Amino acid sequence: MTAVRDDGCESLTNRPERLGECLRRFREHAGLSLSGLARKVNYSRGYLSKVETGRAPGNVQLAQRCDEALGTGGVLARLAQARDARPSRGAASADRTWDTSTGWQRQPRPDEPTTDHRPDAPLTRGELPIPSATAVAFMLALDEAHNALRAVARADLPPSARHDAANETLHNARVYAIRERLLVLGAAPLVAAAEVAFLRLIAIRDAIRAGARLDGADYHRVYHPFAEGLWAFRMALRADLGQSPLTPEELGRADWSDRERCRDCGERYRPSA
């Protein structure tokens, strides 16, 4: 595809924080609507709109797909990579603290002590090393996205709206962005467990996009493996932090899949006396 030229965007190519604005200019120069670009890159129109307006950060994978669709010669991917490589967003520093709810660093509050997350720095109560904090953020993002997917499954939406809403759940929960960080920072066993849970969440998304309802077999066929995978990810994180493993029995469960406690699967869980 012939590369798109847009002189209005050239001034932004050394400003990674302007990725969304640059994407919008390239898209408009190519004569594509948001919906048209969304179809080409397999992202929802709503998410692309958020990236262009700065309400969502976008990620390298999205930037690469947009580069390919728009023929921009890799400009957008380089912007995304440069932004993610900035010390203020990724590297540890003494004047920043780690936010486990997002997987990113943030400025500490005035009354909050700062921490230095050097690899050799001793941990104090309440601290997590950056890879573990990223894993916690990813676990929370998976759970948030699953809850949002359940809401989509309950809603009475036409097929196209259902498809877009299901796609947006993972983007809105920052699943893709935090996953990229974990793939780089996490230890191999932790990343492997995270990927299993992630792929099983994708299976739930695909089932709901295809019309699965919460009380239907199509949903439960993919939900229970996800529940099991998410618990396995939790146990891998405990191991990564040096904590002893937990068993389902210790938490009053028959196993990690939740099948025996699932009313829709026709089985009620009754703890043994």
Detailed description of the structure:
Keywords: Membrane, Transmembrane, Transmembrane helix. Residues 82-127 are annotated as: Disordered. This is Helix-turn-helix transcriptional regulator. Residues 23-76 form the HTH cro/C1-type domain. The chain is mostly helical and 273 residues long. The chain has 2 domains: 7-84, 434 Repressor (Amino-terminal Domain); 130-261. The chain is built from 11 helices and 2 strands; from the N terminus they run ααααααββααααα. Strand 1 and strand 2 form a beta hairpin. The protein is flat and about 60 Å long.
Briefly characterize the structure.
The protein is 54% helix and 2% strand.
On the 0 to 100 scale, the average pLDDT is 78
Report, as a whole number of angstroms, the end-to-end distance: 68 Å
* Class from helix and strand fractions: mainly alpha
* Low confidence ranges: 88-126, 267-273
Q: What is the N-to-C order of secondary-structure elements (H for helix, E for strand)?
A: HHHHHHEEHHHHH
Please provide the count of β strands: 2
